Every structure is written in C-alpha cells, then in structure tokens.
Amino acid sequence: MQKKMLLWSIAVVMMTAMLGIPNMVMGADFLIKFAHFQPAQMDQPQHVAAVAFKNFVEQQSGGKIQVDIYPAGQLGAEKEILEGLRAGTIEMTNIHDGPIPTVFKPAVILGIPYAFESPPIAWGVMDGWYGQKFNEAMLKETGIRILAWSDNGVRNFSANKPLKSPTDLKGLKMRVMVSEVYLKMVQAMGGNPTPIPWGELYTALQQGVVDGQENGVTNMLAAKLYEVQKYYTLDGHIYSWHIVMVGNKFFESLPPDLQVIVKKGVEIGKVIERGLVTTQDLMAANILGDKGMDVVSLTPAEKDEFRKLSQQPVVDWAKTQTDPQWIDDLFKAIAEVQDQLKK
Predict the structure, then answer these.
(1) With bands split at pLDDT 50, 70 and 90, how would you rate the model's confidence at 198?
(2) Which CATH number describes the domain made up of 154-238+283-329?
(3) Which residues pair with 296 in a beta bridge?
(4) What are phi and psi of 14, to 5 degrees?
(5) Phi, psi of 25, rounded to the nearest 5 degrees
(6) Which pLDDT score is estimated for 6?
(7) Domain spanning 2-153+241-282 has what CATH number?
C-alpha cells in the first residue's frame, strides 16, 4: 500500500510540474482569488493542488479565467474567508474542516473521533450520497458551494512524552483548534484542551503554554512543530478534510463551459492533494523520524482505548448541536462503504 501511494504521489507531482508552466493571463473575463492556509512551498499539498488548479483552469479556459493564489492565510483567518465567500469578496478557498460548524452546524459530524478506519472509507463516504447530501444542505443554508472534499490528513497527538493510552493525556494541556468538538474529544480522553489559533501554536509549544497538540504530518512540517515536540503518536483520532469551496453567486456567474473547467481543475487538485497527504501520513515514521521525532505506533487494542473513551461522548454531544439524523446517516454511510470495499 505504501509503495503504491508513493508511486501515485510521484506521478501526480510530475503532472503538477507539467501543468506548472507560468501563464500570462491578459484581459481575463473572470478573476478567481483562491485562498488557502499552507505555506507557498511545493512540499505542502494544499499549495501544490492550488498551483495545479490555477494552471489547468487558465490554460483550459484560454485565458478567460485568471486565478490568483493567496497562500498562508494572506486574505485573513478562516472566519473571514468564509464570510468573504458569502459576501462575494473572495471567490474560492481550500479550507480545513475545523471552522465549518460556525456557518453550518451539521459540520460538527466531521469531528467525531475514530469514525473512519482508513482514507478509502472516508473518501467513499464524502464522495458518495452522504457527501452530496451535506453539500446540497450547506449550499442551501449558506450560499457556499462545496466542489470537492480534499485531504488534510489523519490527525495524531504529539507531546514531549509518548501517549500510549488515554491515561498518558491526564494533566496535559493539549492545544486544539478553536472548535468545540475538539474540546469535547480531548476532555473525554482526560486531557486539558486549550484552544490556540494556528499562527500562535509554535510559540505556545516553545514557551510551554501547552504541553502538546494534534495535527497531521503535513501541518507538522508546515509549522516545523517537530522542533518543539519530541513524540508523535499514531493514534489517528480524526480524519481531517480540506474542503474546496466557491461562493455560489460567483460560480453561477460563470458560463456553463467555464463551470465545467473549474470543476475539472478542482478534481485534479483533489487527486493530487489526497495522494500527497496520504503518502506523508503513511511515511510519518520516516518523515518525522528524519526531523528528530520519535514516532510511536499503537496496536489496534491501544487505539480502541482512545476510541471507547472519546467517540460516544462526542456523538452524544453532536446530537445536541444538530439533527441526530446527520450522525445516524454518517455511520450508515460508513458501514455501506466498508461493505463495498470487502467485495
């Protein structure tokens, strides 16, 4: 599996390089300001996907669409980006799932821990009927159109000691995103969740404001968190998403042929980002080990200890925040995809 994903990743990077020939878009009919939150580096999957999208769309549209990429949160924090999509001041974004419940409450389901056993199951659920239902409901309620469920990787805990069981979390101040569902999860495990904005995380760890945090390999690299954390524990508590969105008023202002080009460009970016992120996740021991971290693997039984403590309390809480049918349908869709993959 690792070898296949590595070969896939190499292939998509080569494809991106071929697409990455600079274009001069003169007199474009439409401008897409595309905001994302990773550094403008080619080891950052979100940025690689954005560059591929830009070059595909500009080339295929014959210069009718110009795409300007704004990486590393240049256009503002997550809440500002979502507001910009609704107001029409920003056309597109690739944004992580954490802040989505602030505009669409059913998105709390995205924080249910240990819901997906593997990336193919997660992809099957959100590319299938459940994801389509989610997309349509969010569009109706917010005016934001989801074009693709991309990939933010599997989130794992890091600290300055190995976390082999939930008891190891007791007493630790663990940084979480500014998201209530993450607070509930860490509390259920016995840790002390401390919301800290992404841009302040490195300093908070360096100064001991918090003892640990949770993120995927890509984000560990992006923020150089390996410099201020010793152990990375592969508990895989959350399958995290990057979600490609467009303001619907802008999208519907495009002629149908240009809408198709945008959709195709997003699909290419999705495949690239999923391949790169999954490869990084599978090679966590190699990548972070080379950076000086000790990567701790857990047995299925050890992972189950974390799941038993955290999943049901988060599910119970989520059902107080949104229609419980969203949660019931999620687990139904997961079971269906699991069955399909066994055939």
Answers:
(1) confident
(2) 3.40.190.170
(3) 233
(4) -60, -40
(5) -95, 105
(6) 43
(7) 3.40.190.170
